[in-house]
Write a structure and sequence with these properties.
By secondary structure, the chain is of the alpha/beta class. The chain is built from 5 helices and 7 strands; from the N terminus they run ββαββαβαβαβα. Strands 1-3-4-2-5-6-7 form a 7-stranded mixed β-sheet, sandwiched between helices. The mean pLDDT is about 90.
Length: about 200
Amino acid sequence: MSDDISFNQAKYLLSAPTIKQCPDDTGREVAFAGRSNAGKSSAINTLTNNSKLARTSKTPGRTQLLNFFTLSEDRRLVDLPGYGFAKVPKAMKQAWDRNLACYLQERQSLFGLVMLMDIRHPLQEYDWQMIRWASQAEMPVHLLLTKADKLKKGPAKSVLLGVQGELAKEGFGDNISIQTFSSLKKAGLEELKKTLNVWLKAEK
């Protein structure tokens, strides 16, 4: 469709340590969240066809700020601080948790959360915490099972179905969609774009 969001036009806007330093709370934005090694930055770079847009690192936990990227005047992507594996002081982890919770629950322009999990290690403790935060905020969630190229098609499908089952068992099935994704192979890219277009193009 000609009026689809042009993700290739994404540009870096700013980085904010807390919600108070975020851009004006207007328009629509979609945030990317996940453990520090889940491939958030790589997914954003693949989505925008810009390998240098979001900073990637072999050291988990480098994304310590709320990083905003503009798609248009009132549409944005947000790269949230990674959680879980980061080798940082406990006090800093607690501050990240507070900022994430505040952002998810208070940000009025946030209309969807893309949550990334390594397909080989889905639904860790912090993942469940994020899912619960999103549920409390009545926030739509789209799960990306990343690094799907690390598994063959059959096992990847089994993980997908298993995660769907776990979410349904916990009562989170209705507001959460899920897919497999590979930044390396660009597998699942069109499915991701379709979801983001629905979230970002809708009007209040």
